Amino acid sequence: MFISGFVAVVGRPNVGKSTLINALMGQKVLIVSDKPQTTRNRIQAVLTAEHFQVVFIDTPGIHRPRHRLGDYMLQSALGTLKEVDLVLLVVEATSPPGNGDRFIAMRLKSVGTPVLLVINKIDMAPEAFAASWLQAYVSLLPVQGYLQVSARTGQNTQLLLEEILRYLPEGPLYYPEGMITDRPLPFQVSEIIREKIFMQTREEIPHSIAVEDTKIAPRENKDLVDIDAVIFVEKASQKKIIIGKGGTRLKAIGQEARVELEELLGSAVNLDLWVKVKADWRRKNNILRQLGYE
Length: 294
Known about the structure:
- This protein is of the alpha/beta class.
- The chain is built from nine helices and ten strands.
- Strand 5, helix 4 (about 130-140) and strand 6 (about 145-150) form a beta-alpha-beta unit.
């Protein structure tokens, strides 16, 4: 018997959803950082084995929106919940439930899809994880069960995968073997560049940047791929920060991205990055559509 199905991974921003999916996949498919709201789009990661296929849906962290992009991210996250076979609600072992957790639980109650509670970051929790916190999380909403895991170290992630498979029906191979994400190559390239910007810039910058879908052109008769990417920011001051003194920060972003892009493409990469200002792009529907958020 071959089983297959769709699993939505939801939770507050920065609880480790993308890291958890990468751990379950056994490889890096999604970008990660310690900045909230790293994931902006709904992205599918496809895990295929001899007897099963699990399609994990990574959703933007559910939060109260502050701008048009925030509205898009919230609707993208909530829109998946009735379309899947199982929901993983990811919370943190490092703190008790907050308003964000209750906000999500309230929305999950009306969905009717089975929910597994995943308590992440147990490697970072106090040595004596408070039983009252666990009970507080379990009491947020009716769940099928719960597991405590560390997506960062991989602790208990195999047990979680086994538990997930119990809720999936007999079904077809939705995606071809060897396919690990539904997103096209330009999107994957843009996400890698965005991740490196997160790693290189200060707290206020990551939320204000976007990377336009890139132009990818293999050189004829040469093992080399040319990539052009445009980084959008909202203010001229942010452009200066991204570029850095004498272009040093933009160069570092490019160098870090190039290493991962060459691994992704299996070829040498010539990467050109450009930085442009688009004032208040997160509030403008036409720009959000241009960037693939609508």
